């Protein structure tokens, strides 16, 4: 019930500089659980922004009254990756040694925001729920840590999918929880939920 909402939320997106991507933003209003209305859209051309600084942007909403105030920073991203199991980033002994030095006790206060990183190997799922009429599912897996989100490819018509992917996340808060959710891809419709597990980082 506000015409001047303040969200104060931060989201990290993994942007690869060889792509000319636009950041698309939509503002919605919600009357109740069933009724939603689009209040406006705007775009940010990422390639036009200066790097390594925080840019304060006031973006007018297209075809609607109002504007959106955002802080956008484009900075080099370390630690985030998706790779196949055979080229696991921690599989190289020299890289492991570099990481050990980077997070050694003597370097603890060099960068307080760099807590560490988490590497997750998503191997397979077993005996998933059948979401399709044919008794199969088209499962994919989404990994979320804080506001970071990465996902596997979809394995079609399979209740025992094998993904064999390695995901690497930078850790910003040691109290975060890794959430791993399995969905069934359903064409143009929203995916169906097949199951979820939550792993607190402090339990690893």
TrEMBL record:
PROSITE patterns per the UniProt record, alphabetical: C2
GO CC, one annotated term: synaptic vesicle membrane
Keywords: Calcium, Membrane, Metal-binding, Repeat, Transmembrane, Transmembrane helix
Domain C2: 1-59, 93-204
GO terms assigned for molecular function: calcium ion binding
Coiled-coil features, chain-numbered ranges: none
Bilayer-spanning residue ranges: none
GO biological process, one term: regulation of neurotransmitter secretion
Family assignment from sequence similarity: Belongs to the MCTP family.
PANTHER family, A to Z: C2 DOMAIN-CONTAINING PROTEIN, MULTIPLE C2 AND TRANSMEMBRANE DOMAIN-CONTAINING PROTEIN 2
Name of protein: MCTP2 protein
């Amino acid at each position: 019930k506000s015409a001047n909402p303040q969200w104060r939320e931060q989201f990290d997106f993994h942007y690869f500089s060889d792509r000319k991507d636009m950041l698309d933003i939509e503002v919605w209003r919600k009357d109740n659980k069933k009724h939603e209305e689009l209040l406006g859209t705007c775009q940010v051309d990422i390639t036009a922004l200066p790097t390594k600084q925080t840019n304060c942007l006031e973006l007018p909403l297209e075809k609607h009254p109002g504007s959106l105030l955002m802080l956008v920073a484009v900075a080099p991203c370390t630690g985030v990756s998706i790779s196949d199991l055979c080229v696991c980033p921690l599989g190289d002994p020299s890289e492991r040694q570099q990481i050990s030095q980077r997070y050694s006790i003597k370097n603890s206060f060099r960068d307080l925001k760099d807590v560490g990183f988490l590497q997750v190997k998503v191997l397979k799922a077993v005996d998933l729920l059948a979401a399709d009429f044919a008794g199969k599912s088209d499962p994919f897996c989404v990994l979320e840590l804080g506001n970071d989100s990465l996902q596997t490819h979809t394995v079609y018509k399979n209740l025992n999918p094998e993904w064999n992917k390695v995901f690497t996340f930078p850790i910003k808060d040691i109290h975060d929880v890794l959430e791993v959710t399995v969905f069934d891809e359903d064409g143009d419709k929203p995916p169906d939920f097949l199951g979820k597990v939550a792993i607190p980082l402090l339990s690893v």
